[in-house]
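Subject: for your reference before the review

Hello V.,

The reviewers asked for a structural picture of the protein, and I figured it would be easier to keep everything in one thread rather than splitting it across files. Below is the amino acid sequence we used in the manuscript, unchanged from the supplementary table.
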Amino acid sequence: GENRVIVSPIEGTTRDAIDTKFEADGETFTMIDTAGIRKRGKVYENTEKYAVMRALRAIDRSDVVLFVINAEEGIREQDKKVAGYAHEAGRGIIIVVNKWDTLEKDNRTMKDFENLIRQKFQYLDYAPIIFVSAKTHQRLQSLPAMIVEVSENQTRRIQSSVLNDVLMDAITVTPTPTVNGKRLRIYYMTQVAVKPPTFVVFVNDPDLLHFSYERFLINQLRQAFDFSGTPIHVIARKRK
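And here is what came back from the structure prediction:
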């Protein structure tokens, strides 16, 4: 409810990544309002190049990234690069579609836009999507609780005994694959880090853990535990 920074609907108005503290739902947040990142062809001046670098640094020092898409313009190629950077950095991600008030809508508009996002950002299938309007404050009050939930999921730790129950159930339902006549054997799984949740699986040969089976294991973890909004890393190690 306060004017704290200079903003404009025109891209490129914000140059710096500005830290703003605020409280909501009994929690204290630090919001880093980054410079808008435009297409490379539109980066005319050095000041904007540095603005892009500062925005990427802001991602590095954040816990949860609110990835904002302009509903009027839709999804652009540069959006994919920025989202990919946040994903690779292992940050919690919420996809925020802003300026939702400006579109003419019917009962299919939101679902169609959501399907488009899921199609263009298949690697962000874990990220919740919210449609807001900064101008009219539509749904903005829902964001703090979503941010807290994603942050908690980013720092969730699972006991090894519970993890391995899930792992054994997964292997029973979908046995490990055979590659060139050699079967992948998974012995044990343990969590080694948070932000993002990172799991090590001990196997007979790490090269046998194909991407598709790794993806299957990640999906089983998501079904068993609430990891919405956060990427999950799985590392295969040879059991000594």
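For the response letter, the relevant points are probably these. The beta strands are 18-24, 27-33, 64-70, 92-98, 129-131, 178-179, 182-183, 186-193, 198-203, 233-238. The mean pLDDT is 88.

Happy to draft the paragraph if you're swamped.

O.
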